[in-house]
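Sat 14:20. Reprocessing the chain from the morning session after the first attempt stalled halfway. Input below, unchanged.
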Amino acid sequence: MANNEDKFKKVISHAKEYGYVFQSSEIYDGLSAVYDYAQNGAELKKNIRDYWWKAMVQMNDNIVGIDAAIFMHPTTWKASGHVDAFNDPLIDNKDSKKRYRADVLIEDYCAKIENKIEKEVKKAAKRFGDAFNKEEFLTTNGRVLDYQEKINSILSKMGKSLEVEDLEAVKALIEELGIVCPISGTKNWTDVKQFNLMFGTKLGASVDSAMDLYLRPETAQGIFVNFLNVQKTGRMKIPFGIAQTGKAFRNEIVARQFIFRMREFEQMEMQFFIKPGSQGEWFKHWKEARMKWHLSLGMGADNYRFHDHEKLAHYADAATDIEFRFPFGFKELEGIHSRTDFDLKQHEEHSGKKLQYFDHEENVNYTPYVLETSIGLDRMFLAVFSNALQEEVLENNTTRTVLKLPAVLAPTKAAILPLVRKDEALVKLSKDIIEDLKWEFNVAYDEKDAVGRRYRRQDANGTPFCITVDGESLDNNTVTIRHRDTMEQQRVKIEDLKTIIKKEVDVKEWLMKM
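Finished this time. Tokens:
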């Protein structure tokens, strides 16, 4: 665990040092669980958003995108259930005065048991070598099976207690497991209480006439209330989807783990409207499609897993999470939910407006079912960034810090480096190359320090290519192009640079892997 904690600290430090993520309002000592995306972070975030949008909207004939407002009529949140039931179970430690989410304390306890399973797997893999079968080991080893049974039992007990809001049982489980406060190390807990997560605000010029509003806690409701508008104006036939990216806000009392859980965050959601009865096949379809999207980025299949929900929301008939191996363990990255017809029926009831679909082929009206895919853009950013940050020992026993971002997502695709910055001819040719490339790629100019140090700087910044312009470039229009991941260098013609870079960073090249 210590190694993972050290790695996470390096991720946070690197994100600041290289202009990816800053603490919000840092000059005023910051604002807890609120972060700003810096110059490179804004580019990486945009590229992730675009990669999702192209795969979800542009590549699907029956999915369109919208951008609904953050402010919505307050009855929206009554209909969706957020006013009455959007709560977190919180518990305080009386000695440290720190507040925790009770379910997260229990999940963290289970994560420690999962770490024991991982250790057993590593020991067995070392012992058996090439003959090791991980799947067989996980399903037959007695100690691993006992660990897994304990995890399942704990999570099942917690899920059932939360489902019926038996908060006394949740506290009893924390006490039964002997969970201590990470700060004080004591078990001196208060009772568990529910806390609503929505931020309230007001709309109106005067206090007397102002309307109570909420900052939206999710983007999905903006899709549901626009279902008929989109369906009619777009002449959409079921099955069809509506996608959206945008900010959401939750008053997370126990926000932590850097940008993993924040008070202001961004979601990328798609609601897929389907015929009742077809939700099983569509759930399977989107489960597979979304995992393929993640795997297309080449971050390692071992870093992903599905976690099927035992405890379902009252409106759902199936739910799974795609979990990613963050430095602090496997955590939810994306949710895929079969929401039945709950959302449209709730808004129909509270608005008095009919939200149904007329099927011309079958000559029948019905309320569509919904299949949802929902991913946190900030969590995806953290997954990409933390997975990419690596320290490598080179052949000469020196180390290099390299940010191996998927090239399609990298903020800067290439850095152009004149070998000698005082040579006006080299500088001019370098600037000419930039002028040509920047129409298609985000490129940078770097002339400070020896070229080796510039390479290291661009490695740490995640730039896939470094292009060095030297004296030979003036004679024959060739440059040296260096690949970040392999450090290999090639001599190529300046006119071929676009083709070489495009092959590595083009969205099509990456999405075709799906």
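The first helix runs from residue 2 to 17.
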